Amino acid sequence: MAGMLITGLINTRALTGTFLPLPGHSGFATVLALKLALVLAMLGLALWHRRQLARGPLDIHGFKRTVTLEWACGLGAVAAVALLGTLAPTPLT
User: Fold this and answer.
1) Which letter, b or e, does each residue of 50-77 get, where b requires 16 or more Cβ atoms within 10 Å of its Cβ?
2) Is the pTM higher than 0.85?
3) Over the range 4-15, which residues count as b (16 or more CB within 10 Å of their CB) and which as e?
């Protein structure tokens, strides 16, 4: 996980000239921020699922709903990555 974070920051720095470009300044930065938000939501849901499983008996319907939400965040993150591949990063000048 730490390796993905470090290489992602290095790649963003190489493409844009900054470690975290401000959303709204370019389409690339906005989509990157959306992808980051979706990945953080996935990690939060995964942590919540882990705690729910460790706690004991589950509300299976609620669990299915949140797993579906986690999947949707994952698909959204993959779609954002695909879109990032088509956008030109705007380096800071």
Assistant:
1) eeeeeeeeeeeeeeeeeeeebeebeebb
2) no
3) eeeeeeeebeeb
Cβ proximity of 67 and 15 under 8 Å: no
Give residue 22's identity as a one-letter amino acid code. L
| Tens digit of each residue's pLDDT (9 = 90 or more) over 34-45 | 988 999 999 999
The answer to whether 5 and 20 have CB atoms below 8 angstroms apart is no
Q: How far apart are the first and last CA of the chain?
A: 31
Residue type, 35: K
Asked if residue 12 lies in contact with residue 20, where contact means CB atoms within 8 angstroms, the answer is yes
User: For residue 91, what are the contacts with CB-CB under 8 A and spacing of at least 6?
Assistant: 15, 16, 17
